[in-house]
């Protein structure tokens, strides 16, 4: 889809059975998990994968610093 950071590629998760069942595209994850959420709902998603920043295909991203101490900072950035 055309809102990808690099307009040529989608992000995908490749589950163990992806050769039989296929990859799970970020557009599918967004349509299944994100879009059905009611206005004002919060979704906390932890994705343990390389380049997982846009696996939910969101129009914004939360950037957190990697300092391991209390009082770390974060900011939201529109894509």
UniProtKB/TrEMBL annotation:
Gene Ontology cellular component annotations, sorted alphabetically: cytoplasm
GO molecular function: cysteine-type endopeptidase activity
GO process annotations (BP): proteolysis
Transmembrane feature ranges: none
InterPro entries for this protein: Metacaspase (IPR050452)
Family: Belongs to the peptidase C14B family.
PANTHER family found in the cross-reference section: METACASPASE-3 (PTHR48104:SF17), METACASPASE-4 (PTHR48104)
Protein known as: Metacaspase-3-like
């Amino acid at each position: 889809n055309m809102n990808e950071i690099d307009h040529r590629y989608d992000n995908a998760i490749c589950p163990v059975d992806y050769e039989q069942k296929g990859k799970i595209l970020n557009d599918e994850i967004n349509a299944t998990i994100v879009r059905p959420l009611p206005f004002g709902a919060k979704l906390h998603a932890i994705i343990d994968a390389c380049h997982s920043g846009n696996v939910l295909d969101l129009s914004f991203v939360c950037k957190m610093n990697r300092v391991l101490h209390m009082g770390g900072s974060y900011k939201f950035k529109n894509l």
